[in-house]
Amino acid sequence: MDVNDLSATYYADNEATNLMPPSVREKLKKSPLYSKDGQRDKAEVVVKYWGPSGAGTWLITEGEEQENGDWRLFGMMHIFEWEWGYIMLSELENVKTPPFGLCIERDLYSNGTIAELRGVLDDGAT
């Protein structure tokens, strides 16, 4: 079995690779864009996405479904450094990280504020 077959099997059976299940969709509907304006590090994270190869962490605090069905997401993101910004769900869904073409995953267990999750992340985890 080659790496692509293993990857396809893993992602077909893995709940973490469903980036927008109904539970996250409902939480984001209660946290539309700009609803947490000014809260900064005290903003509650709705969903955390991460790259299993170690590159990339997205702490999403707000989001809004677009007319085309895609989602515009806002939060604190880390690729090379922490920064606030927007990303489209479709962009996350299309990322394939080297060397094995791994997809971005949804963290099933993290919850808290930006400050809490960044504190955990800054202590050594990605």
Task: Describe, in plain words, how this protein is organized in 3D.
This protein is α+β, with helices and mostly antiparallel strands. It has one domain. Helix content is 25%, strand content 27%. It contains 4 helices and 7 strands. A 5-stranded antiparallel β-sheet has the order 4-3-2-1-7. A two-stranded antiparallel sheet has the order 5-6. A hairpin with a 6-residue loop joins strand 1 and strand 2. The longest helix is centred in the N-terminal third of the chain and has 10 residues, at 3-12. The radius of gyration is 15 Å and the shape is globular.
Structural class by secondary-structure content: alpha+beta
Number of helices: 4
Radius of gyration (CA) equals 15 Å
Question: Distance between the terminal alpha carbons, to the nearest Å?
Answer: 30 Å
Q: Which segments are poorly predicted (pLDDT under 50) over 5 or more consecutive residues?
A: none
Largest sheet: 5 strands, antiparallel
Helix content: 25-40%
The number of domains is: 1
**Would you list the SSEs in sequence order as H and E?**
HHEEEEHEEEH
Mean pLDDT: 86
What coarse outline follows from CA principal-axis ratios? globular
The strand line-up of the biggest sheet is 4-3-2-1-7
Q: Number of DSSP strands?
A: 7
The portion of residues forming beta strands comes to 25-35%
